[in-house]
Amino acid sequence: MTIKGSCMCGGVRFELFEPPAMMGACHCSRCRKAGSAAYVYVRAEALHWLAGRALLTRYRPRPPFRFTRTFCKRCGTAFGDPESGRVVAIAASCLDDDPGVRASFHEYAPDEAPWSLGCSDAPFGSK
């Protein structure tokens, strides 16, 4: 099973060679500001960069925050923290294929933005 991912400009591309172990959604203000709140978790060995690794830049927050964010320098697509250790967090929003998992947990749910509540009930617009 191969799951492809990329940024908006197409400069950064990667593949996951195994399905993610899980997916979770974080509702903290930092994840919202990074442009992604849903993450898949996969073993670092399963992540293979196809192109554009030089386009990646990392944001390291000040303590007490620990979660580093990685972005495409050209278009700003958030990738999560694909270099965080043995298990990496990849922003689900940059996946091109269905990862085969769905969110099984929520973090910082009390911090969910008031405007996002009920979005799942909103009608879909045109494509």
Question: How would you describe the overall organization of this protein?
Answer:
By secondary structure, the protein is mainly beta. Helices cover 4% and strands 36% of the residues. The protein is built from one helix and ten strands; from the N terminus they run E-E-E-H-E-E-E-E-E-E-E. A seven-stranded mixed β-sheet has the order 6-7-8-9-4-3-10, with no helix packed on it. A three-stranded antiparallel β-sheet has the order 1-2-5, with no helix packed on it. The longest helix is centred in the first third of the chain and has 5 residues, at 29-33. It starts with a strand and ends in a 20-residue tail after the last strand.
Task: Offer a quick outline of the entry.
With 127 residues, the chain is mainly beta.
